[in-house]
Structure formats: C-alpha cells, structure tokens
Task: inverse folding
C-alpha cells in the first residue's frame, strides 16, 4: 500500500479509536518524514480539512485539557490559512505551509498520547483505545463508544445498556431485531478490515454486504417519520427493503443516494478518484449533500447504469455498464475488465490485506482483463506476468515489484 493510502487508513483508525500502538507509531513516523515527500500535499490537505471539520477527531474525549489543546491547534493554523488566501501574488510556499500543518499533527499526536495515559473511563464505559483491539479484526462500535470484536465464526448477542437485545450474530452475519418503541436514533458502526467481508441485516430488513476496508454507520433501529439514513466509507452492496413512506439514503462523503427499495452497489474509498454507484434493480436518485431535492439537482439512474462522481473535478458522469463487473466481489470474485494495473493494485491490497509497491515504469497503466476467485496473490501475480514479464519479491505482507527487469521488458515490447 502506498504512503497516501496508508495515511488515509491510519487517520481513520485514529478517528475511530481502533488504532493499535504499532499503527499509531507508523502514523507518527509518516508525519515526521513529511518533507521527504512520502505523502503528497493533496493528501495532507484532505486530512487537515477533515480534522478541522471534526470528521477526524478522537472520539469520547473526556479530558478538558485535551479539548483546550486541540482548540489551540486550530488557532495556530488559522493564520497560516488566512495568509495563504490573502497573498495572491506572493503565495505562501507549500513547503512552509504544510510543514506548519505537520507540526500541528505532531501536537495532535501529543494530545492522543496524553489522552491514552491520563483518561479514566467513565463508570460502565470501556475506553476504546485501551482495549488493544486486533487491527485485522472486524469491530462493532456501539453508541456509547464501546468497541466489540466480531469473530467471523462466532455466535453472540449485542445488547443495549439496559439489557435489551439489539442484534444477534451468526457466523458472518449480524442481524438487528428492531425496536418499535424506540424514539431516538442510536447508531452503531461496523468496521471491516482489509482482507475480509461481512453481511449485515438492518432493522428494516435491508441487507448489506460490506467489502474489505469498509465501514458503515447506521441506526440500531429506524424510526417512523424519519428517513432511513446510513453512512458508508468503502464499498457495499445494498438490497434495500421497500418502504415508500421512509426513503433509504446512503451518504458517501459529498454524495447521497436516495432509494425506496432497490439493489445497487456503492463504492467510496477515500483514496479512489470517484464515488461510484451501479444500479442493479429499481431506481435511485443521486444528489449532493445539502442539496434541495425539490429543485433539479438530482441524477436519476435506471438499471444497468453507473454514476461516477469525480471528487476532484466535482463532476458527475453516467454510463451504461455490465453490473456483474461491479458486483462480482460479493460472491468472492476478483473481476478486472480492461482495468489499469494501478486500480487493480488497490483492489488487491484491500482484498488480501497487503501492500504492493510498484517500482517499474511500465505496469502502472498496463491494462488487464482477468477473473480470479480462490487464487493466492502469488498465483494472480504469476498470471499477470504471462502478459507482461516482471519480477517481484514478498516480505511478509509487503510485495515489491522490482525495476531491475526494465531492460528486458522494453526489449520484449519492441520485439512484439
């Protein structure tokens, strides 16, 4: 996994209080070596924007001093931002600007360390950070901040603080029972690490299949008179239970997908260029978060269409697609159709929970069409080598595609 993708993942774990000591140390290492360009300015800009908007903010912080320190960080960075906006001819050098940002991240690191050492959990509330959760485990974050580990082969019941049954787990499926007497929205967040998938049955009967590296925040019980709104990061396939009186809305960062009852695939990984929605059955309407749906601000899809919202260009495009290419993952398939290697690499990293460093100059945009199901990562790479020869080495969970074979690659390409 490249540094940018790794940074996104570690910041999200920091925000969710699921980061391990080893992962926290790695994040701090990335911050300290900012000037070596291991992380792009764009990536830092995105992280800081989310920090300021509290989308990346350590939850359940009870210590007043840490809150004050965080406010001091905001106060310190504000002059830098204002200076950059004010100088139209002499713009503040990016290196200076982001060095200041990096320094502030280090202060956040200090807050985090202080919080870990000094925060005493409230009675009846487990401190999520102190649980030392396995970074490769499926986790469920409850409304009170408690984080529980989900074993894929286990059976268990999830209960409320008062002892009421919220959900039951049977193997790879977590099913919510629903409580019609509930009058307040209470949220849980299910986090799926790289290398795993999981099934979720919401209280209204909506079925959700979550792909690797994904998280879904959803109400334990939907309430009459309110929209059924959930929040996705990653990729999921939704089979939405029909309820004409209560629209089902999935939020993916800047985009909302609104349905009454349908089947669709939604992919929103922070490191990807697009937020992709593929409609299999029914109909959906896409619109920007905060837009007025009574105005002409929605994009309508019919079955077989894909809407791709480009986050950097702020543009929506609609195309006809083969839906199977976008949903095969939920049946265990890795399906690539005329896909460039850089996109394939991201999917392989998430699927196998590995990192792939490509040191060649030829593979990045090399296009492949292939289907895999039970193959190992080594078998998949060997299949790609049949088309484009290359050498690689594996050290633990890291695979490096070597650049010492470039001369042979160019020679083969010339002979063809």
Result:
């Amino acid at each position: 996994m490249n540094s940018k993708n790794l940074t996104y993942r570690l910041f999200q774990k920091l925000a969710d209080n699921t980061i391990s000591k080893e992962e926290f140390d790695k994040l701090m290492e990335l911050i300290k070596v900012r000037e070596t360009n291991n992380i792009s300015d764009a990536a830092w800009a995105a992280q800081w924007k989310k920090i300021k908007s509290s989308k990346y903010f350590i939850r359940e912080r009870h210590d007043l001093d840490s809150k004050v320190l965080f406010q001091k960080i905001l106060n310190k960075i504000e002059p830098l931002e204002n200076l950059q906006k004010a100088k139209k001819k002499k713009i503040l050098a990016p290196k200076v600007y982001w060095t200041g940002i990096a320094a502030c991240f280090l202060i956040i690191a200090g807050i985090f360390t202080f919080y870990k050492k000094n925060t005493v959990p409230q009675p009846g509330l487990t401190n999520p950070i102190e649980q030392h959760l396995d970074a490769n485990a499926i986790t469920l974050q409850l409304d009170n901040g408690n984080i529980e580990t989900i074993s894929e082969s286990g059976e268990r019941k999830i209960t409320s603080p008062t002892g009421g049954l919220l959900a039951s787990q049977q193997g790879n499926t977590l099913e919510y029972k629903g409580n019609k007497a509930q009058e307040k929205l209470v949220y849980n967040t299910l986090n799926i690490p790289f290398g795993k998938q999981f099934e979720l049955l919401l209280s209204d009967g909506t079925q959700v299949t979550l792909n690797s590296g994904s998280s879904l925040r959803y109400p334990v019980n939907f309430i009459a008179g309110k929209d059924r709104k959930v929040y996705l990061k990653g990729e999921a396939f939704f089979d939405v239970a029909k309820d004409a009186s209560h629209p089902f809305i999935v939020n993916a960062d800047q985009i909302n997908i609104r349905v009454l009852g349908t089947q669709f695939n939604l992919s929103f990984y922070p490191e990807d260029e697009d937020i992709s929605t593929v409609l299999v059955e029914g109909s959906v309407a896409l619109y920007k978060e905060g837009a007025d749906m009574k105005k002409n601000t929605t994009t309508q899809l019919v079955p077989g269409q894909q809407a791709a919202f480009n986050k950097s260009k702020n543009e929506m495009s609609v195309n006809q697609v083969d839906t199977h290419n976008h949903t095969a993952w939920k049946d265990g398939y890795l399906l690539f159709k005329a896909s460039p290697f850089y996109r394939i690499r991201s999917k392989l990293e998430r699927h196998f929970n590995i990192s792939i460093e490509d040191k060649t100059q030829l593979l990045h945009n090399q296009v492949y069409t292939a289907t895999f199901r039970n193959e190992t990562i080594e078998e998949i790479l060997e299949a790609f080598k049949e088309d484009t020869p290359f050498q690689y080495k594996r050290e633990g969970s890291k695979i490096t595609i070597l650049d010492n074979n470039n001369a042979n690659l160019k020679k083969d390409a010339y002979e063809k």
